[in-house]
Specification:
heterodimer; A: 312 residues; 14 helices; B: 409 residues; alpha/beta; D-Maltodextrin-Binding Protein, domain 2; 2 domains; 4-stranded mixed sheet; 20 helices
Chain lengths: 312, 409
Amino acid sequence: MALSDASDVTAQVGQGTPARKPTRIFKNLSSKIASLPMVFTALVIFVGGTVWTIVYSFTSSGLLPRLKWVGLDQYERLWSSRKWMVSIENLAVYGICSLILTLVIGFTLAALLDRKVRGEGMLRTIFLYPFALSFIVTGLVWQWILNPQLGLQNVVRGMGWESFAFDPMNNSKIVMFGLLIAGLWQGTGLIMCIMLAGLRGIDEDIWKAARVDGIGTVKTYIRVIIPMMRPVFVTSLVLIGSGIVKLYDLVVAQTSGGPGISSQVPAMYVMTSMFGGQNLGQGFAASTMMLVTVVIILVPWAILEFGGKKRG
Amino acid sequence: MKLTTKLMAFSAIVSASSASAVELEVMHWWTSGGEAAAVGKFAEAWDASGNKWIDGAIAGGGDTARPIMVSRIIGGDPPAAFQFNHGRQAEELIEAGLLLDLTDVAEAEGWADIVNPPNLLDACTVDGRIYCAPVNIHSWQWMWLSNGAYEKAGLPVPTNWTEFSESAGALQDAGITPLAMGGQSWQQNGAFGVISVALAGTEAWLAVNRDKSVDAVMSDEYTRVFEAFGAARSLSEGLNVQDWNQATAAVINDTAGAQIMGDWAQGEFALAGEVAGEDYSCLPGLGEVGVLQTGGDAFYFPVVDDAEITAGQKELAALLLSPPVQVSFNSAKGSLPVRGDVDLTTVNECTQKGLDLLAAGATLPAGETLLSPDTVTQLNDLMTEFWNTPSMTAAEVQSAYADIIADAD
């Protein structure tokens, strides 16, 4: 009753005012005002900061930013530095393995939980629990577990397998896998939960139809369910991807880049050159390269993924 | 209204009368057992003078602590005082006018006459003004040996690097790691610096570090150093530790034969109740070249917009160099005092060796006062890669080292 009255009033007011096409800028004015702070933040802090960083990457800034132009010197030094090359290689190895394994393990766990196992709630909590820990704690925990004198290797040897050797923290060839294990342990739970939510969103009728057609469970998952979960996979991909690029604290806590420089990552290169070496220019050059890499990967993908939708 | 003014006036009087009690936040990275005990002496002395010391210790060593300090200073929230290694680390902060000029304190206290060796004060001086208060002398040129480990292996304790290298095989046979080395890059680069002074001599070392001479890096003397360092890599196998004090602990526990580490390691021996000469031995200059690098720690004071704190900062600067504080601090830390006119309370065999070298003037400037932090970081990266990559040859490292020195400013 009251509601219809109110709408009548607005209708009358609308008719009373002279008919004028509202300008587009003032459409949804309140929500536009509400989003102004975020627009401002994004422009000043993200875009502004990025431009500032790129500009100063062409200077010889040391401990403090200074506009003393040196052209591409910082980039030349960056690309001739072995530590930078090792960092990129490491990030590539970690990134590819982490992306594939997190998705595969996350989906497998979710699919298994989705089979209505007993104690699902408890298992879900257990798998998600590591995500509640910071990377620093995760790094330290795995540093201890993988420590050959007191961790896994020692336990296995204590059980009688004397020649067992697994010490990724002290072996420069496999140290990235030591980090990968910790990263997976921490991150898979979240992806599993997202996947599980996606699986729960699939209509029961799909399963019934698949059963009627006599398609096996595994085949239904791969051929029918996964294509239907595309948005969920995109979300997971973005989450995993951003985690990979900013990989830093895990390395600091677990290996501090060692042994030697064998577990260095780009973010760490940026930090050590900016603050350890008091060479901001070099750090800015490195972070600009990180940004460029991300943009090269992200832009075509974003255009493919989101660009078509407006028209479609 | 009137009451408020009265109250305000009253509180102004109160705060004025308590002006002598200044709270100063002091940031440093002294967190190992011996170091923490030493910095406690500063805090005690400052608190005893009626002020308040707020301890801002940052764990993880200088490489972790320095960025935190710098970002606080640049960010406009500086601590009242902070520790740096004196040298070129604070160069730009001074040029930017962020640090307090201590010249008047230095003149009033006569630092120019008492600080020995004088190059310590030079390292604090920029354009004739003094910006830091040196508090101790640390030298890298030491090798610490475990007498117990050598006893176990049935060998005499070596008296120089050559003997040490020869005895390494026998130690390994006895299940002892000959050389304890932590995993952090500065430890490996530091040990390399010690070996290079010991094997190539002071002149070659100065040519490389002070004159930035590429020819000196490629010289035969330095080739020997790179080869010796390369050969030492296998001596630390089997001991996986990260921090320097864990490596020192291995020497204390007799599970490792020796460690190349600065004299700050002696604080750890003292804390473990070990006696110099009985439980452990020390070789300044690796027993080859008796010379000490006079590096060390210094306190810098950021400029603040508060006269009371500025006065407190200057008072603290003077206090840090006063004789009783110098004695208690350096005795606890195992370092040498910056003034030649005080006697340490407990001078053991090793400290005495250091004092003798200092008195004889056998000193070298510290690496940090000659090389910029940027160069030091690059060298750290190179040497840690060399140390941890058995397939890397000495010749490869030598030419990479030469490239870095060629680019150094």
